[in-house]
Amino acid sequence: MSRKEDILSRIRENIRKSYDMPDISRIKGIQYPDVIKQFEEISKTVGGKVVKAVPGEDINSIIKELYPDAKIFASNLPEITIASKNPDILEAHELNGTDVGIIKGQIGVAENGCIWIPQTMKERAVCFISEYLVIIISGKNIVNNMHEAYSRIKMNGYGYGCFISGPSKTADIAQALVMGAQAARGVTVIITE
């Protein structure tokens, strides 16, 4: 018997009682009177920007106005007509140099300003290789907390997704805050409906 197996065996021998896991299905988590307002405030706190689209307003015009100097846009969303690159037909290295990546978020979380991004495109690098990232999300899909978000997540055929909250940041380099060290230097969330 190895040392590790010996230790685990002794632990098992000395366990007097075992307990079932607590029922967490009734945990509601924090609730907000206005989830969109809370989402906006937290998003700004983590360095993101939030824009509310007026019903009927062209998303392409909003993005062009937000990023007037951008030359290369990447998106696989059919409503994004300003995209010059489609991540579904490109390899990751071909997305290098993308100024603005435009994706759709599935679930926004008011308590921490994060958005669940299911992997719906072949090349997920656009989420991380773009200088700036625009996430479009319906206000109807913003929930109070992570408990609610996790209860709504449905994994897709790719089996991958991630939560994104604001721009990439790190303070590992000489203990100074650096934006865009590992991914987008800026994130703008456009809330529709």
Automatic annotation (TrEMBL):
InterPro entries: FTHF_cligase-like_sf, LUD_dom, NagB/RpiA_transferase-like. Residues 94-191 form the LUD domain. It comes from the Bacteria. This is LUD domain-containing protein. It comes from Xylanibacter muris.
